[in-house]
């Protein structure tokens, strides 16, 4: 199965599981919940990739040369080439395979092949620090197993963190002038497009979390 399709399938299964559970047990689901559910599901998958980034950092640094050569030889986007790479189902959770996400992305931003950079460390931090809170937040939004106040406070903490960390990453990318090493299309298609959801959706998440605190209910997530 192509790596991109496999990643999308994992995200879809996590999101559909939450949506189906909320519809069955709570009897309602709104578009706001669906957007947040897809975001949190995506973050869970990416947390795994970010843990792979840490444990396979030597591999990523050496693998960058492969993707640079591939790009010069074929003219194809390394990211798209990776996403179309066939992955055996038995290797669906292989740290080495998913470390290649970062090796291919490093052809656009070398931060991920350099453990001294902000980009590398902020994503490693996200992988280790936010995986469990993401699960708790997702479970709270889905099952309402904790008070709206507690869920709202947790949401404010982490949605703000996601928005802030991503904003600083993008700022550091341009301040370091890394955009000069790639085309304008790649800046928009690979850097801005891939990172924008971690600013836009957390803004929605902040709104939801504040409403949970102010309203004292989960109604903002309903239909």
Describe it for me?
Helix 2 packs antiparallel against helix 6 (118-143), helix 3 (57-74) packs across helix 5 (95-105) and helix 7 packs antiparallel against helix 9. The protein has nine helices and no strands. It is an all-alpha fold. It has one domain (3-221).
Spatial extent as radius of gyration:
18 Å
Shape: globular
What pattern of helices and strands is seen along the backbone?
Answer: HHHHHHHHH
Helix percentage: over 70%
Largest sheet features: none
Number of helices: 9
Instruction: Assess the beta-strand content as a share of residues.
Output: under 5%
What is the average of the pLDDT values? 94
> How many E-type strands?
0
Give the termini distance in whole angstroms: 36 Å
The stretches of 5 or more residues where confidence is low (pLDDT under 50) are: none
Structural class: mainly alpha
Tell me the domain tally: 1
Give a nutshell description of this structure.
The chain has 223 residues and is mainly alpha-helical.
List keywords for this structure.
single chain; 223 residues; mainly alpha; 0% strand
Write the layout of secondary structure elements.
Blueprint lengths: L2 H24 L4 H25 L1 H18 L3 H6 L11 H11 L12 H26 L4 H28 L8 H12 L1 H19 L8
């Amino acid at each position: 199965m192509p790596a991109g399709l496999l990643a999308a399938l994992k995200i879809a299964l996590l999101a559909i599981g939450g949506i189906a559970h909320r519809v069955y047990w709570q009897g309602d689901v709104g578009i706001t919940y669906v957007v947040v559910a897809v975001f949190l599901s995506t973050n869970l998958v990416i947390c795994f990739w970010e843990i792979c980034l840490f444990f396979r950092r030597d591999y990523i640094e050496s693998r960058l040369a492969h993707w640079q050569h591939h790009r010069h030889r074929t003219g194809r986007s390394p990211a798209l080439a990776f996403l179309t790479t066939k992955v055996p189902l038995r290797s669906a959770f292989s740290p080495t395979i998913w470390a290649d996400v970062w090796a291919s992305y490093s052809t656009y931003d070398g931060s991920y092949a350099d453990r001294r950079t902000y980009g590398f460390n902020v994503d490693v931090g996200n992988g280790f620090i936010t995986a469990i809170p993401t699960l708790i937040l997702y479970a709270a939004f889905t099952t309402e197993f904790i008070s709206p106040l507690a869920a709202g406070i947790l949401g404010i903490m982490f949605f703000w963190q996601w928005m802030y960390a991503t904003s600083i990453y993008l700022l550091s990318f341009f301040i370091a002038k890394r955009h000069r090493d790639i085309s304008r299309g790649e800046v928009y298609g690979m850097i801005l497009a891939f990172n924008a959801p971690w600013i836009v959706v957390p803004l929605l998440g902040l709104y939801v979390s504040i409403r949970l605190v102010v309203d004292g209910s989960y109604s903002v997530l309903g239909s």
